[in-house]
Amino acid sequence: MLRKKLILVVCSLLGLFLCFHFAMVAVHLSPRNPFKERISAAINGYMNPVFKQGWYLFAPNPVNRHESLQIKARYTDAAGRPRETDWLDISKPMVREIRANRLSPKSRLLVYESKLIDGFLSDEPAARRKAEKRLGAYASYLLQKRLKIKGHISEVRVRVVVNKFPRFKERHQPDSKGILYYHYTSWIPFGSVGQKGEIP
After folding, report:
1. Cis omega before residue 49 (within 30°)?
2. Residue 158 — left, alpha, or beta (φ > 0 → left; ψ -120 to 50 → alpha)?
3. Domain extents in the chain
4. pLDDT tens for each residue of 21-34
5. What is the pTM of this model?
6. Terminal Cα distance for the chain, rounded
7. Which of 116, 128, 59 minimizes the C-alpha distance to 91?
8. What does the alpha-carbon distance between residue 164 and residue 68 come to, in Å, rounded to a whole number?
């Protein structure tokens, strides 16, 4: 008897969750409307990044490129000498970690990176300037919290690397044979990160 009740409770909870999930998906995919605008933060928080789905495998806009971020820093070492790092790839290690653990919280950072790149490659100067500032803050955060350069960092620079894949007639070639395009930010003053991770 207890087992039947337990099964009934679990099935009821699962049914309620599925109803909730499909309702959220339906609202997320619906056209813009006042109700959707009011609860957009809750919907986006639920859908991204776990349930986010892109349709770029299909025509008319299939995926045709891969984008990644690399950062460089100017710093003063312990002896007081000015130095500059090599370009440090910050996207590839994150992608490897996410592939090893699909539920990794770093998937949110990857989505954030993608939005920064879209803004930086925008044709609108205002969006580009805003994205460049945010890229500088993001690079500062990673340099201080993850990459740990020994010395006093003064400036950071970011480059967006776009790899356009070989086209269909050259599909037998690996992605690495595609054309690489580099887009650089200017040197941006390093912003120190506070205790809670915020950048002033």
Report:
1. yes
2. beta
3. 2-47, 65-189
4. 888 888 887 888 88
5. 0.65
6. 60
7. 116
8. 12
